[in-house]
Each structure stands twice: as structure tokens, then as C-alpha cells.
């Protein structure tokens, strides 16, 4: 009897560690990319030939996320049009004999019948923490993932897949993606107060949002992937405004660090800050080197050395 109860408790524990919901905060105005984002949401800006939001969606799909929640703004209806299936466009493409294109669009888009997708609005820019809180009434049971499309992470295994696997095996309540940054860059990030290391996870007892270099507790900076215990919503409801007068997600996470445990996951992929022009260019060039046609252009312009020259 005791053994059966023990097995049942293990199963319940494993279920409660399973990440079923992903939240995409996409309500921002994208001011750093104006005038390009005056009519086109920054999440739809392409990195080579694929919009940022598509990379984020594909990463969540690879991690077997069941429900996708987009926290958007009433002015950004184009995001919903992009991620959802467009039956009329697909029919038109098929009628013109463009079966491959139609099939690719169908595969990339969400089906309104088969897929579990929600759109909620954040009418005012009150911070990332407030954006996550807007999704509260739509999440499934258990921990939730938060994906910031601005942070493009490219790797052989999706960052969220890696994190979800590590989270399921850990006792950490909140797990955030982290990377080591130069000292002169820490003021741009939330930074962990590191206490130790366990494999790919650095343990921490707190987090500081955008500290000055001399005040930073470490150089482990938080980037745009989070797996958060469901209690994060209770914390956000009582969270006072922080840096910039906004409800900071990092502040709410830090409040639960002691009771829940906080970890930083050191992912294997390469991260590109596509919220900046330089980061977007860097990501585009990286993906261009993987495309034979684009690579030929880069080589012709001397931006990439030909393989024969490198070998010599």
C-alpha cells in the first residue's frame, strides 16, 4: 500500500513538472525598429526569410507545448493573421499550382480546430510581468513557459526543449535561461545572484534587474526563456512597479527564489538579440551562411572567406 502511494506521488510530481503552456508577450511597439514597425509588428520582421515569431512558435512546438498564449496589443492583429491558418490563401496557392508553398504555410500555421491557441490583449505597456499576468486566466495547470521572440536562440536542440527536460529532473521552482555576458553589458539584463552549479543549471538565491556593473552579483544574465512555477501569477498580482515604473517579471521571480528555488539554465544554442538592429543583422548573417544561395553572395562580396582560402 505504501509502495503504491509512493508510485502515485511520483507520477503526480512528474505531471506537475510538465510544461504544458507557453506565453508569448508580443504587445510591444518595437520602437527601436521604427519606421519599419509602424505598420509591421517587430515579431513579424524576417530573419533572412522567416519572421521572428515563427522561430518562437516552432521552438514551443518542438518542446511539445499544448497551449500557446499570445499576449498582444489591439493594433497588432497581423500577428494573429500570420500564426493562424489562412484557408483562402492556401486554396489560391493550390489553384495556381504552388502546392509546395501551400503545404509549407499549412505546416507552419495553427489550425483553429486542432490547435490550442489563445490571444489576450495588453492594452497598456506596463512591463513584461504585467504581460505574463494578462495570460493568467488562460493557462493550463502546472508550470508555464515564457518565450520572448526578440531573443532568437539557434541550436541543434531547441532551448525550451532543453530547459523543459532539465526542469522535469530538477527541484527548481523557477528556471530561467542564462548566459555569461561581459561586465560592461550586465546593466542591460536581469542578473542572477549565483550560489552554486548543478550540471547545466546554476543555482541562485535572487536576481537583480539591470544592475550597474559595480553592483552586479554575477555576470549570469537572464535572456528570453523562462519556465515558471504557477505561483508566479500570485506574485505578479502583488508586485510593485520596478525599473522603468513597470511590473518586472524578474522582480516577481526573485521574490520566490528562497521558497521555490531559482536556477539559471545554460543553454547550448547561440543567442541573438533581435530586439536590436545589430543583433538582427548578426542573426541574419548567421542564417545566410547556412543557405547556399546567400552564402555565395557573401563570398562574392568578401564577407565570408571561400572554403578553399580557409583550408589554405
UniProtKB/TrEMBL annotation:
Pfam families: NTP_transferase. InterPro entries: GalU_uridylyltTrfase_bac/arc, NTP_transferase_dom, Nucleotide-diphossugar_trans. Residues 27-287 form the Nucleotidyl transferase domain. Keywords: Nucleotidyltransferase, Transferase. The keyword rRNA-binding does not apply. SUPFAM superfamilies: Nucleotide-diphospho-sugar transferases. The keyword Nucleotidyltransferase applies. GO terms for molecular function: UTP:glucose-1-phosphate uridylyltransferase activity. It is an enzyme of class 2 (transferase). One of its GO terms (biological process) is UDP-alpha-D-glucose metabolic process. Its EC number is 2.7.7.9. It catalyses: alpha-D-glucose 1-phosphate + UTP + H(+) = UDP-alpha-D-glucose + diphosphate. Belongs to the UDPGP type 2 family. This is UTP--glucose-1-phosphate uridylyltransferase. The lineage of its organism: Bacteria, Pseudomonadati, Pseudomonadota, Alphaproteobacteria, Rhodobacterales.
Amino acid at each position: 500500500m505504501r509502495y503504491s502511494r509512493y508510485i502515485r506521488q511520483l507520477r503526480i510530481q512528474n505531471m506537475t513538472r510538465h510544461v504544458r503552456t507557453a506565453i508569448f508577450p508580443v504587445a510591444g511597439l518595437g520602437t527601436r525598429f521604427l519606421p519599419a514597425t509602424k505598420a509591421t509588428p517587430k515579431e513579424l520582421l524576417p530573419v533572412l526569410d522567416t519572421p521572428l515569431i515563427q522561430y518562437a512558435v516552432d521552438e514551443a512546438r518542438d518542446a511539445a507545448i499544448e497551449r500557446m498564449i499570445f499576449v498582444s496589443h489591439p493594433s497588432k492583429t497581423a500577428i494573429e493573421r500570420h500564426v493562424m491558418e489562412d484557408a483562402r490563401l492556401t486554396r489560391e496557392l493550390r489553384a495556381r499550382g504552388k502546392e509546395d508553398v501551400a503545404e509549407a504555410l499549412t505546416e507552419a500555421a495553427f489550425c483553429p480546430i486542432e490547435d490550442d491557441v489563445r490571444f489576450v490583449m495588453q492594452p497598456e505597456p506596463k512591463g513584461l510581468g504585467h504581460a505574463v499576468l494578462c495570460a493568467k486566466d488562460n493557462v493550463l495547470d502546472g508550470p508555464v513557459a515564457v518565450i520572448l521572440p526578440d531573443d532568437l536562440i539557434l541550436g541543434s536542440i531547441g532551448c525550451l526543449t532543453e530547459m523543459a527536460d532539465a526542469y522535469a529532473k530538477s527541484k527548481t521552482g523557477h528556471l530561467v535561461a542564462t548566459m555569461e555576458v561581459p561586465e560592461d553589458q550586465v546593466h542591460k539584463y536581469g542578473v542572477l545572484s549565483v550560489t552554486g552549479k548543478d550540471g547545466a543549471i546554476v543555482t541562485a538565491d535572487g536576481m537583480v534587474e539591470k544592475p550597474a556593473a559595480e553592483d552586479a552579483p554575477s555576470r549570469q544574465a537572464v535572456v528570453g526563456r523562462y519556465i515558471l512555477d504557477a505561483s508566479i501569477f500570485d506574485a505578479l498580482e502583488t508586485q510593485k512597479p520596478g525599473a522603468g515604473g513597470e511590473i518586472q517579471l524578474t522582480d516577481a521571480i526573485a521574490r520566490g527564489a528562497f521558497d521555490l528555488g531559482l536556477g539559471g539554465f545554460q543553454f547550448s544554442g547561440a543567442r541573438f538579440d533581435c530586439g536590436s538592429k545589430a543583433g538582427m543583422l548578426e542573426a541574419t548573417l548567421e542564417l545566410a551562411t547556412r543557405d547556399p544561395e546567400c552564402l555565395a553572395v557573401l563570398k562574392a562580396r568578401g564577407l565570408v572567406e571561400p572554403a578553399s582560402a580557409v583550408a589554405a
